[in-house]
């Protein structure tokens, strides 16, 4: 079976499942438990950033990597231009543009003046359906613009 043989509803549901993974990943990083990002990947899943030569392979390593995020980090990722393409009934690829706003040294309940984005770029993702569930197989981060994460010196007033 090819993707051309898929019923339009099956194609839509597969594309939507992959889009939801993209959004759930950033929600977990920004608002949830960062180490739980690993559960969205295949057991042999890969997160990589070629520019920085980072490559994290496997759920256990992904859990440790994302779980090591600073506890005082405040971040929000804005994702747009999500384009999912089915390669087969059980594989897909996507490109997503993003901007990351991030500061370290945040105290819960403190309003932070909006900084410039720390990073702007795109994600290139691949997906596999395993036992009927879509999961991320790879996520590669490409930065067009990037800079250091601002460290707050103390509570800010706005």
Provide key terms for this protein:
158 residues, alpha/beta
Task: Provide a descriptive summary of the structure in words.
It is a single chain. The protein is α/β, with parallel strands linked by helices and 158 residues long. The chain contains 2 helices and 7 strands, in the order H-E-E-H-E-E-E-E-E. Strands 1, 2, 3, 4, 5, 6 and 7 form a 7-stranded mixed sheet that branches. The termini are far apart.
Strand content: 35-45%
What characteristic shape results from the CA principal axes?
elongated
Helix content: 10-25%
- Unreliable segments of 5+ consecutive residues: none
The chain-level mean pLDDT equals: 92
- The helix count comes to 2
* C-alpha termini separation: 57 Å
Number of E-state strands: 7
Task: Spell out the helices and strands N to C.
Answer: HEEHEEEEE
**What radius of gyration results from the CA coordinates?**
17 Å
The secondary structure category is alpha/beta
* Major pleated sheet: 7 strands, mixed
Provide a compact summary of the structure:
With 158 residues, the protein is of the alpha/beta class. It has helices at residues 8-31, 59-67, and strands at 41-49, 54-57, 74-88, 91-104, 119-130, 133-146, 150-151. The longest helix is centred in the first third of the chain and has 24 residues, at 8-31.
Could you give the topology of this structure?
Blueprint: H1 8-31, E1 41-49, E2 54-57, H2 59-67, E3 74-88, E4 91-104, E5 119-130, E6 133-146, E7 150-151
Parallel strand pairs: 1-6, 4-7
Antiparallel strand pairs: 1-2, 3-4, 4-5, 5-6
């Amino acid at each position: 079976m090819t993707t051309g043989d898929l019923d339009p509803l099956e194609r839509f549901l597969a594309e939507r499942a992959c889009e939801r993974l993209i959004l759930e990943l950033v929600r977990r990083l920004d608002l949830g438990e960062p180490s739980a990002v690993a559960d969205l990947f295949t057991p042999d899943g890969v997160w990589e950033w070629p520019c920085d030569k980072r490559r994290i392979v496997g759920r256990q390593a992904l859990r440790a990597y994302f779980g090591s995020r600073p506890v005082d980090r405040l971040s929000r990722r804005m994702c747009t231009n999500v384009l999912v393409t089915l390669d087969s009934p059980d594989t897909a690829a996507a490109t997503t543009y993003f901007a990351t706003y991030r500061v370290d040294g945040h105290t819960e309940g403190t309003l932070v003046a909006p900084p410039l984005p720390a990073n702007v770029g795109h994600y290139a993702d691949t997906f596999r359906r395993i036992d009927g569930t879509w999961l991320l197989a790879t996520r590669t981060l490409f930065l067009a613009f990037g800079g250091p994460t601002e460290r707050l010196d103390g509570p800010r007033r706005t």
